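Take a look at my tokenised protein here and describe the backbone shape.
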Amino acid sequence: MIQVQSFTFNPFLENTYVLYDETKEAIVIDPGCYENYEKEQLNSFIEEQNLNVKRLINTHCHIDHVFGNEYVKNKYGVKLEVHEADVATLRAVKAYAPSYGFQHFEESEVDLSLKEGDIVKFGNSELDVLFVPGHAPGHIALHSKADNICINGDVLFRESIGRTDLPGGDFDTLIKSIHDKLFALPDETVVYCGHGPETTIGHEKQYNPFCALRN
């Protein structure tokens, strides 16, 4: 069974996730740790739980989700995996990070590409890769059928949605991703978001003011 541990990092209050199971194999998703104390918080949990980090994945590559990529790559000897359509999003971060006040951003290279239909495996667990663009051009979500969870980055929030006014964003595309991919998941699926609290697919179908399914 997959265990989900979240951390809220950086001034954007981004949610970083560590997923692991009974084998103690783990994956890190969207490491937003920028300050050294944030990196230490992440590492302390991994060491205390005696986890073996096997993979590093970005749901998408906006600045707040990638601060810790290079740290995680070097610390745990893993490769960075993203959708190929978001490689340019990642490469752009180095140019604009100083304008946000982040003078010490560490750039990372993408090592592996993930696409719709891929299966992310670690320990005894599997996650299906869903392609859900709209907030970012190469945005993906990770869904566990067995555990009814979805790590969805900045696509769907509790009674809200990801912004679409950044480069590569598109409102109609985002709504289509939500309706066609996320709302196709079981209502009881717990959705872990890139910011804020978790929610469920059933709750958002009924109450989300941007994308609820109206009768």
Remarks:
- The chain has a mean pLDDT of 97.
- The longest strand covers residues 3-9.
- Residues 36-48 form the longest helix (13 residues).
- The two ends are 35 Å apart (CA to CA).
